[in-house]
C-alpha cells in the first residue's frame, strides 16, 4: 500500500502536461543543489513560451518604427524650415546687397531735427565737440520690400510677414563710421566730422506720423577747415542759392545687427561699405531761413556785411592800475533755424586796427560770455582788455579815437584764435550823437598887446576847458599838451554858425567863407603844455577833467577883410563900461596819457595818444586892462 501511494504522487507523474515544482514544505532546502537546477536551464521551450516571446518582439519592433518615423519627420521638417529660412535670408541678403547708401539716405533714413545742438568744448587746435539731439529711425521695410502693400497673393503676404518678423527680431543696428569729410559744391573741404558708434532703430510698416521715431543724442567732433577763403566762398554761395548744399565722403562704414551693448546672434550680421559718396545737393541739409531786417536769401541776392548783422548796443572802457578793460553789449541777428537750440561756451577773439603802410595792429583781446541762440537776435556780452601795444602805435589809436568822436565809423578786423585764418572785416560804429568833449572853454586873464615889429598883435592868458568823456569811457587821463586853432568873434558865436574845420585841413588854412562876426585867428606855432585834474562825474557821462594851459605871446592874426570888425571890438573894450565879450570857436588837438594803457617804446617810456580835431565853442571877457596898447 505504501508503494502504491508513492507511485501515484504528483512528482512521479510523467508525460502528462507540464512538469510542476513540488510545493515547498518544512523539508524543502533553502539552497538547491547544483545538480538539482541544471536540468531546468536546458529544458526546451514549450509553445506558450514561444508565443510570449514573439509578442514581445512585435511590440519592440512597433515602438522602433514609431520612433524612427517621428525622428525622420522631425528631421525633414527641420531641414525644410532651414531651407526656407536660408532661402528667405538669401533673398533678403540679396536685396540688401543691392541697396546703396544713397537709397538708405533717400528712402529709409528719417531724421527729425536736430532740435538741440550743444557746443561742449572747443579744443586748442580749433576742433569743436558738439552734442546733437534729434529723432531718427530707419524704415527697413521700405528698402527690403516687406511693408504691407495692396493684396499680392497669400504667398507674398506670408513672405513679407516673415521679413517683417525678421526686422522686428533684429530691432536695431549699430553703425560705425570712419571720419567723414564734408565738401562744398566747389569740392573744397569744409570740415571733418568724427563720431563714436551709434545705434539706429529699425521699423517695418511705420505709421504715417512721426511717432515711430526714436530720440538720439550723438556727440560729434568737428574739425573745420582753416582756409578762410573757402569758408567765405561757401557762405556766399549758400546765401546766393538760399541753401547750404554739401557733399559728404565716408571712407568706410560698418553696420552690425543688434545693440552694441548686447551680444548674441544679431552681431553675426554685418554689412560693410567703403567709399561712400553722399551728394546732398538734391536734398539740402540746411535751408537758410528768412532773416528779419535783411533781404531774403537766394536769387543771387548779395550776402549782407557783418556790420548789418551785428548791432553794438553799448560800449565802455575803464582804466585800471595796469591795464584798460573793455566791455560791450551787442546783438547779432540769428541766422540759424529756430528748431536748433544751441548753447555755446565763451568764445575768444581779438580786434585789430589798420595801421600805417597797410599793416594790422592788434589792440584788444576779448571774449564772449556763454550764450544761447535766441530769436530773432542773439545777445552777446563781451569783455576783455587792451593788449600790450607795439611801439609807435599811438598814431593808430589816435586816429581811431578821433574818428569815433567825430561820428565816423572805424574799420576793424576781428579774428578768433580758434580759427586763425578766418578774418572778419567790419566797422566799429560811432555813437548816435556827436559827443561834446570840450566844454566851458575860455581864456582866463587874457592880455592883448602889439607885437614888437608892429602891424600885428600878441595874445596871452590861461586856456581853460572842461573835458567830458562820452558815457562808458571811464578812463583816467593825464592831459599833457594842447594845440588850439581858434577864431575870435565880436560877441557870442552865432548859433547858426557851422562847425569850423570839418575833417582834416592843411595848416594855416582858414574856413571859406569866413563866419559872420569873426575877426581874429589864434594858432600857436607849437603845442602848449597842459595840466589836468579829474573831478566828479555826471549822470550819463564818462570821466570829467579840468584842463589848463598857459598861452604866452601867441599871435592874434586879424582875419583878411575883417579890420573893421577888429576895430569895433577894440572900441568896445576901451570905451565900454565892462569891457567886451569875445566868442571863441575852433578845434584843438589834445595829447593825453591813459592810465593802464600798455603803451611803451623801446626805451620803456610811456607813450601818449593825441585826440585830433576836437571841436569846441566858448567865450572870454576882455576888459580894459587886457589891452596893453
Topology:
Blueprint: H1 2-7, H2 34-41, H3 47-98, H4 101-108, E1 109-122, E2 128-139, H5 140-144, H6 154-170, E3 172-177, E4 180-184, E5 189-194, E6 198-203, E7 214-224, H7 228-241, E8 243-244, E9 246-257, E10 270-279, E11 286-287, H8 306-309, E12 310-319, E13 324-333, E14 342-344, E15 348-354, E16 360-368, E17 371-372, E18 377-386, H9 394-405, E19 410-416, E20 419-428, E21 438-450, E22 457-468, E23 473-474, E24 477-490, E25 518-522, E26 528-535, E27 544-558, H10 563-575, E28 580-594, E29 609-622
Parallel strand pairs: 1-14, 2-6, 12-23
Antiparallel strand pairs: 1-2, 2-7, 3-6, 3-9, 4-5, 4-9, 5-7, 8-11, 9-10, 12-13, 13-18, 14-17, 15-16, 15-19, 16-18, 19-20, 21-22, 22-27, 24-25, 24-26, 24-28, 25-27, 26-27, 28-29
Region (Disordered): 1-38
Transmembrane segments: 69-93
Protein name: Pre-rRNA processing protein
Amino acid at each position: 500500500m505504501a508503494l502504491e501511494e508513492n507511485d501515484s504522487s504528483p512528482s512521479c507523474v510523467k508525460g502528462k502536461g507540464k512538469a510542476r515544482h513540488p510545493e515547498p514544505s518544512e523539508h524543502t532546502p533553502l539552497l538547491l543543489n547544483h545538480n538539482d537546477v541544471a536540468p531546468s536551464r536546458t529544458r526546451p521551450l514549450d509553445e506558450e513560451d514561444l508565443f510570449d516571446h514573439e509578442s514581445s518582439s512585435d511590440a519592440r519592433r512597433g515602438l522602433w518604427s514609431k520612433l524612427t518615423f517621428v525622428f525622420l519627420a522631425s528631421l525633414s521638417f527641420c531641414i525644410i524650415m532651414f531651407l526656407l529660412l536660408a532661402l528667405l535670408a538669401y533673398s533678403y541678403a540679396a536685396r540688401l546687397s543691392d541697396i546703396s547708401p544713397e537709397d538708405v539716405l533717400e528712402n529709409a533714413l528719417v531724421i527729425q531735427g536736430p532740435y538741440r545742438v550743444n557746443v561742449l568744448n572747443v579744443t586748442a587746435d580749433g576742433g569743436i565737440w558738439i552734442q546733437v539731439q534729434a529723432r531718427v529711425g530707419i524704415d527697413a521695410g521700405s528698402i527690403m520690400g516687406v511693408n504691407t502693400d495692396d493684396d499680392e497673393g497669400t504667398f507674398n503676404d506670408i513672405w513679407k510677414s516673415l521679413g517683417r518678423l525678421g526686422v522686428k527680431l533684429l530691432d536695431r543696428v549699430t553703425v560705425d563710421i570712419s571720419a567723414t569729410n564734408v565738401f562744398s559744391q566747389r569740392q573744397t573741404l569744409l570740415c571733418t566730422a568724427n563720431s563714436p558708434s551709434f545705434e539706429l532703430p529699425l521699423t517695418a510698416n511705420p505709421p504715417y506720423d512721426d511717432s515711430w521715431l526714436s530720440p538720439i543724442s550723438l556727440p560729434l567732433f568737428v574739425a573745420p577747415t582753416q582756409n578762410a577763403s573757402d569758408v567765405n566762398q561757401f557762405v556766399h554761395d549758400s546765401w546766393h542759392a538760399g541753401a547750404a548744399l554739401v557733399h559728404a565722403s565716408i571712407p568706410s562704414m560698418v553696420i552690425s545687427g543688434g545693440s552694441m551693448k548686447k551680444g548674441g546672434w544679431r552681431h553675426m550680421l554685418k554689412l560693410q561699405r567703403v567709399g561712400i559718396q553722399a551728394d546732398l545737393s538734391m536734398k539740402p541739409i540746411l535751408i537758410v531761413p528768412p532773416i528779419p531786417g535783411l533781404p531774403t536769401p537766394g536769387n543771387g541776392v548779395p550776402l549782407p556785411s557783418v556790420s548789418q548783422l551785428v548791432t553794438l548796443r553799448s560800449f565802455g572802457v575803464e582804466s585800471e592800475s595796469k591795464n584798460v578793460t573793455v566791455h560791450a553789449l551787442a546783438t547779432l541777428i540769428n541766422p540759424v533755424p529756430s528748431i536748433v537750440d544751441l548753447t555755446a561756451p565763451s568764445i575768444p577773439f581779438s580786434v585789430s586796427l589798420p595801421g600805417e603802410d597797410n599793416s594790422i595792429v592788434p589792440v584788444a583781446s576779448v571774449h564772449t560770455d556763454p550764450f544761447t541762440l535766441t530769436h530773432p537776435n542773439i545777445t552777446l556780452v563781451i569783455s576783455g582788455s587792451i593788449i600790450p601795444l607795439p611801439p609807435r602805435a599811438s598814431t593808430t589809436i589816435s586816429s581811431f579815437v578821433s574818428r569815433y568822436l567825430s561820428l565816423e565809423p572805424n574799420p576793424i578786423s576781428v579774428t578768433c584764435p580758434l580759427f586763425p585764418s578766418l578774418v572778419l572785416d567790419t566797422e566799429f560804429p560811432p555813437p548816435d550823437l556827436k559827443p561834446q568833449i570840450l566844454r566851458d572853454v575860455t581864456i582866463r586873464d587874457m592880455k592883448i598887446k602889439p607885437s614888437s615889429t608892429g602891424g600885428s598883435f600878441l595874445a596871452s592868458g590861461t586856456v581853460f576847458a572842461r573835458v567830458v568823456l562820452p558815457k562808458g569811457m571811464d578812463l583816467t587821463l593825464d592831459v599833457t599838451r594842447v594845440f588850439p586853432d581858434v577864431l575870435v568873434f565880436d560877441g557870442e558865436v552865432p548859433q547858426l554858425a557851422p562847425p569850423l574845420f570839418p575833417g582834416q585841413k592843411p595848416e594855416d588854412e582858414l574856413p571859406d567863407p569866413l563866419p559872420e562876426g569873426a575877426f581874429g585867428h589864434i594858432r600857436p606855432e607849437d603845442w602848449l603844455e597842459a595840466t589836468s585834474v579829474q573831478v566828479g562825474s555826471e549822470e550819463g557821462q564818462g570821466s570829467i577833467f579840468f584842463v589848463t594851459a598857459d598861452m604866452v605871446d601867441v599871435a592874434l592874426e586879424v582875419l583878411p577883410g575883417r579890420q573893421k570888425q577888429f576895430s569895433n571890438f577894440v572900441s568896445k573894450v576901451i570905451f565900454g563900461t565892462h569891457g567886451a565879450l569875445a566868442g571863441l570857436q575852433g578845434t584843438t588837438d589834445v595829447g593825453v596819457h591813459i592810465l593802464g594803457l600798455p603803451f611803451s617804446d623801446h626805451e620803456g617810456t610811456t607813450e601818449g595818444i593825441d585826440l585830433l580835431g576836437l571841436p569846441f565853442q566858448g567865450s572870454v571877457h576882455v576888459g580894459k586892462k587886457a589891452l596893453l596898447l
